[in-house]
Amino acid sequence: MTTLIHRLINDIAQQLRTCCYSDDAAYHEAWWILESITGKTKAWLLVQANYTLTDEQQKTLQEWVHARVTDQKPLQYLIGNVPFCGLNIQVEPPLLIPRPETEEWVSWLIERLKPLGNKSITLLDIGTGTGCIALALAAALPQATVVGVDINPQAIALAEVNKKNNALTNVVFSQSDLFAALAPGKTFDFIVSNPPYVTREEYNKLVPSVKQWEDVMALVGGDSGLVFYERIAQQAAVHLKEQKYNLPSVVVELGNDPYAVKTLFEKNGFREVQIYKDMQGVDRWLACYR
Known about the structure:
Elements: H1 4-16, H2 23-38, H3 42-47, H4 55-70, H5 75-79, E1 81-84, E2 87-90, H6 100-113, E3 122-126, H7 132-140, E4 145-150, H8 153-165, E5 171-175, E6 190-193, H9 200-204, H10 208-211, H11 227-235, E7 250-253, H12 258-267, E8 271-277, E9 283-289
Parallel strand pairs: 3-4, 3-6, 4-5, 6-7
Antiparallel strand pairs: 1-2, 7-9, 8-9
């Protein structure tokens, strides 16, 4: 028996097919939209199968679907927030939207750092964007001090909003071009980064929802996609404390040339440089020692 909710979901998904890469994605977004607009879970909506939208909810639905289909606006920007490692992260264009693959390696790192939870360790997040990585680390490691830097003042402002919204006090955000604005001699136990790593050629092939909405500066790492990896590899050592914990000193998210990134860090004196795959089998992050 087709219910009002099922008919509504089918109608939304049908409209979203033109901007989603698969039918499954269209239905996933349709449910995400409906849950966000109603403030109800999918399970609740299925039980209340004949639930109908208010006039205001119907208006919001029409506006969101139009913006998603006609303007190719990412759904995360329409909703205004995304979950990340148990936190609620506010997002706004053109700042980079936190991705599940980033959440995966951050969760991996948190599990390895948890045994240090009662120690006053320090961490640096380069290119913090919305602050999602820095905030996730700060939440998981309450005795740690986390510093998030970004060249974009809009990013720092939004990271501060997310810091306040998630009631975290052990993280500091600062505008900086990588290490440039750090105090002389400032060092950290760990450095992490999700740097711009898309090549210019790859950027030209990106889907409109990314290319037209998200900041090119947060995506493109020069012609090769390696510009920021090279800068981090060259400068990180002087900003790292002597490693005492037998844990990776630097962890970075990877693009499409992971072994070139590995070579860059090895050439700059890092040992045991390891590449890890995500749940999709993609080389997703690199971890290396001093």
